[in-house]
Amino acid sequence: MAEQYSAVKVTDRVHWVGAVDWALRNFHGYATSRGTTYNAYLILAEKVTLVDATKPAYRDELMGRIASVVEPGRIDYVVSNHSEMDHSGCLLDVAAAVRAEKIFASRQGAAALKAHFHSPTEVAAVQDGQELSLGDCKLSFFETRMCHWPDSMVSYLHEDELLFSQDAFGMHLATGERYDDQVPDWLLLHEAAKYYANILLPMSSFVARALAKLTDSGLSFRVIAPDHGPIWRSDPGRVIGWYARWSGQERANRAAVVYDTMWGSTERMARAVGEGLASGGTAVQLLPLDGSHRSDVAAEILDAGALLLGSPTINGQMFPTVADVLCYLKGLKPKGLIGAAFGSYGWGGEATKHLAAALDEMGVEQVADPIRVKYVPTDEDLGNCRRLGLLIADRLKKAYGE
Ligand code: FEO
């Protein structure tokens, strides 16, 4: 067993035995510029229990950390809270290697593990609210469907008031430290928000339902141990509060101006729109797609009140980078946005029409007709762009205050 790996104590019973992926830069289309972790946990109860696993490439790291606290063959139970392969990739293999007595997952989780691994291994399906005795302590399972997949569930260790929350409350952040109080607050908020926007935003109604189920349960959460990023031990209520806000899609007096440019004209328009927004008192972020990733745009619109889209026309279409972002944002289903489209063109100028149609399809309320400029904007055109920014700022101020 690889001896360089150590488990990290979370409570007297629970140890972190996961893996740190410092190199990950793409998680199914989400730019993970700070890497990630695949958190797995070992409960040293009478029935030694492993909660979740890692990608197959990190199997040795997982086994090495387990071996640093207990002989792996002593594992009795394995719990799979979520069957996506970043957590289940080596789970059945590890369970077989240590001859675990039983594997537990939600009903949909058991089916998903079968569909992924085509293994004859039996997985016991647990019901929502079901309890499992580990001898000297007890786990309860709660279905949290669509947080992140249909199979998702969380497990609660009563004696330690500890919630194993799988993807929920996680973030893609590789660190040498394991706890929230060892990471700067701004970084926790930034990466938790980016994670929510890119992974959970389209499931917000399910997240709200899961939050209500957990808060209505009357249970206390002293520690929240997610499957990615730091463990929340200093103030778990903080991330629960963030999730309440994000799942309610609460918006603020902020705007994102997302654009690409061919010969600089659409960029000049975007800057004029941004000037108008800032002059009107709106916090504005310009996102030129030459250097901004779709997942950064998603993070910006998590609580922005307005989305403005700009594109030149190329061969009768919007710029491919803008189409990429639109396809991604449509899937994330943001609600409650206002916005507008703008762009430059040389011949037909179809891009703004396509942008407006896409905004309609996303349910973004367009506060004005698209602004189209032939070739290069005049001072009057730029004045119109600035006025568009002011108009949006006025609407945002009325809705969300200064
Ligand atoms: Fe971290 Fe949905 O897997």
Give the arrangement of secondary structure elements:
Elements: E1 8-9, E2 14-16, E3 19-21, E4 26-27, E5 30-31, E6 36-38, E7 41-43, E8 48-51, H1 59-67, E9 75-80, H2 85-88, H3 91-97, E10 102-106, H4 107-117, E11 124-126, E12 131-133, E13 138-143, E14 153-157, E15 162-166, H5 185-200, H6 204-216, E16 223-226, H7 236-247, E17 252-259, H8 265-279, E18 283-288, H9 294-300, E19 304-310, E20 313-314, E21 317-318, H10 320-332, E22 338-345, H11 351-361, E23 365-366, E24 371-374, H12 379-400
Parallel strand pairs: 8-9, 9-10, 10-11, 15-16, 17-18, 17-19, 19-22, 22-23, 22-24
Antiparallel strand pairs: 1-2, 2-7, 3-6, 4-5, 7-8, 12-13, 13-14, 14-15, 20-21
Helix pairs in contact: 5-7, 5-9, 6-7, 8-12, 9-10
Bound molecules: MU-OXO-diiron.
Q: In the residues, how many domains can be counted? A: 2
Relative strand content: 15-25%
Name the shape in a single word. Answer: elongated
Low confidence ranges: none
Describe this structure in words.
With 402 residues, this protein is an alpha/beta fold. The chain has two domains: 8-247, Metallo-beta-lactamase, Chain A (4-Layer Sandwich), CATH 3.60.15.10; 252-395, Rossmann fold. Helix content is 35%, strand content 24%. The chain has helices spanning 59-67, 85-88, 91-97, 107-117, 185-200, 204-216, 236-247, 265-279, 294-300, 320-332, 351-361, 379-400, and strands spanning 8-9, 14-16, 19-21, 26-27, 30-31, 36-38, 41-43, 48-51, 75-80, 102-106, 124-126, 131-133, 138-143, 153-157, 162-166, 223-226, 252-259, 283-288, 304-310, 313-314, 317-318, 338-345, 365-366, 371-374. Strands 1-2-7-8-9-10-11 form a seven-stranded mixed β-sheet. Strands 17, 18, 19, 22, 23 and 24 form a six-stranded parallel β-sheet that branches. A hairpin with a 4-residue loop joins strand 12 (131-133) and strand 13 (138-143). Helix 5 packs across helix 9, helix 6 packs across helix 7 and helix 9 (294-300) crosses helix 10.
